[in-house]
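[Help] Beginner question about ligand-bound structures

Sorry if this is basic. My supervisor gave me a protein sequence and a SMILES string for magnesium ion and asked me to "get the holo structure". I don't really know what that means in practice or what format the answer should be in. Inputs are pasted below exactly as I got them.
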Amino acid sequence: MADDQDPVIRVRGLKNSFGDQVVHEGLDLDVRRGEILGVVGGSGTGKSVLMRSIIGLQVPDAGEVLVFGEPTVDREESETLDIRKRWGVLFQGGALFSTLTVAENVQVPLKEFYPELPLSLLDEIASYKVVMTGLPADAGPKFPAELSGGMKKRAGLARALALDPELLFLDEPTAGLDPIGAAAFDELTKSLQKTLGLTVFLITHDLDTLYAICDRVAVLADKKVIAVGTIDELLALDHPWIEEYFKGPRGRAAVATQDAHKTQAHEKAEA
Ligand SMILES: Nc1ncnc2c1ncn2[C@@H]1O[C@H](COP(=O)(O)OP(=O)(O)O)[C@@H](O)[C@H]1O
Ligand SMILES: [Mg+2]
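Answer (accepted):
No worries, everyone starts somewhere. Holo just means with the ligand present. The predicted complex, written as C-alpha cells, is below.
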C-alpha cells in the first residue's frame, strides 16, 4: 500500500527513444505529495514526452513509473482506470474540442469515467468547474472560438479538474498568454492547489511561473533530470545551463517581477 510519505509520482531508469533519437535515458524523478513541481528544459528535451510516459500514453523502452504507487507503464486501459480517475491533464496547446461548448468539453472526462451520470448532474458539475476556474458563469454554453486565449486555458483547466483529481498535469499552461494573463493563471493554479490539496506536475518555459508558484523545480537536460530542488538550491549547484537559465536576462526579469509583487503585497498589507 502507498502511504502519505511515498512520492505521488516515482520515475526510475526511464528510457524513451524515437528511432535513433534517444530522448531520455536513465531518467529518475520523484514528485512529492502536495507540491507544485516545475519541470524545465530546453525545447525538445522531452518534457512533454516525460509527461506522456508518466500518464501511460507513451510506452517507454525501459524504466519504471509509479503513480500513487501503481505502475502505469505498458498497462491495459482497464487496469489503470482507477488511477486515471485521480489525475487531470492539460495538454500542451490545451486543445478543447472545437465543436463542443465549454460545458460539454468539461463533461467529456465525466462521461468517459462515469457514463451513468444523469445529464442534470453533468450540467451541474460542469457549471461548478467553469466558475471554479474563474470563468464567467455564462461561458458554459460558449464555443471555444468565442473565448479569449486566457479563457480557453481556464476552460482546459476546468476540464482537467472535472473528476476532482488529486494530481494535475499542466504542460506549458501559460504559453501564448500575455504577462498579465499568465500571472493570473499562475495565481489560479496556486489557489486551486492550496484549496484542493493538489499535487501539480507543471511543465513551463515561464520563469515568472517558476518563481511565483513552484515549490521545487526539476531540470531536464542531457536526457535526464540533472537536478531538482528549490531555485536557490539549483543556483547553488553552479551548473552552467542552470546558471544561464535563471541568471540570464529573462531570469533577472523574473526576479524583478517577483520583487515588484512582493513590494506590492507588502504595501497592501501595511495599508
Ligand atoms: N511521437 C513522436 N514521434 C517522433 N518523435 C517524437 C514524438 N514525440 C516527441 N518526439 C521527439 O522527442 C523530442 C522531445 O519532444 P517533446 O517531449 O515534445 O519536447 P519538449 O521538451 O519541447 O516538450 C523531440 O525531439 C521530438 O521531436
Ligand atoms: Mg512540450
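A couple of things worth pointing out: The radius of gyration is 19 Å. Residues 47-48, 92, 171 surround magnesium ion (ligand 2) (CB under 6 Å). Feel free to follow up in the thread.
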